[in-house]
């Protein structure tokens, strides 16, 4: 059910952003809020028809009412507050990006393909990346918080690496990635190790650079073991797809793992 609710929430955010953005794709909190106040109910109904028809079943009436209320009265207003407190504007929603990142030691290239929920910029034109999660209860929230604190938030790490690589190679405007985080739609809470105004800061055990070194080391070992026949193909492990090694991270895939 969390996936269903997440799809509806994603559709709502993307639709409001598309209606509120200017001709350069920039959307301020004020513009988002104006469209949100005017169109939320109709956008929510369209979201249910497009990706949440199950919510129109009689037995799901309460669930439908709950998510409508949660997004309208809590998740979206709180998110707009975070944008305003931190001087953020949205520059892309559900952006599909494909690019290659290289390990810190230069030995491994990974061709990545991902869909970034929200890409924003701050007052200094630095990048901020948010990923939406709709998980009810404390277990989902605690799982994401633990990933951030332990340095195993691979989805956010890959998003940051992709944007940084594209900036370095001139595919995106100059700027550093100032912060990343999970925005928990069911609890209206931003989880991040970065000091965003108005949000609790989670204490990470490792720096981003340390976590990336460990990630690539583990990935190289896994690839080598798989090619040597030590590991069997399975969920979350590399597999051949059209002659390329594929590694999944959340809803995203590494299209190629190449050991130089």
Total number of helices: 6
Number of beta-strand segments: 8
Q: For the CA atoms, what is the radius of gyration?
A: 19 Å
Q: Summarize model confidence as the mean pLDDT.
A: 87
Largest sheet: 8 strands, mixed
Helix content: 40-55%
**Weakly predicted, low-confidence segments:** 231-260
Task: Give a verbal description of the structure.
The structure is a single chain. Residues 231-260 have low confidence and may be disordered. The N and C termini lie far apart (42 Å). Strands 1, 2, 3, 4, 5, 6, 7 and 8 form an eight-stranded mixed β-sheet that branches. The chain has 260 residues and is an alpha+beta fold. The chain contains six helices and eight strands. It has helices spanning 2-20, 29-51, 61-85, 137-150, 154-168, 208-227, and strands spanning 89-102, 108-121, 127-133, 177-184, 189-191, 239-241, 244-249, 252-259. The protein is 45% helix and 24% strand.
Q: What attributes does this structure have?
A:
eight-stranded mixed β-sheet; globular
At a glance:
The chain is of the alpha+beta class and 260 residues long. The chain is 45% helix and 24% strand. A hairpin with a 5-residue loop joins strand 1 and strand 2.
Question: What is the strand and helix layout of this fold?
Answer:
Layout: H1 2-20, H2 29-51, H3 61-85, E1 89-102, E2 108-121, E3 127-133, H4 137-150, H5 154-168, E4 177-184, E5 189-191, H6 208-227, E6 239-241, E7 244-249, E8 252-259
Parallel strand pairs: 3-4
Antiparallel strand pairs: 1-2, 2-3, 2-8, 4-5, 6-7, 7-8
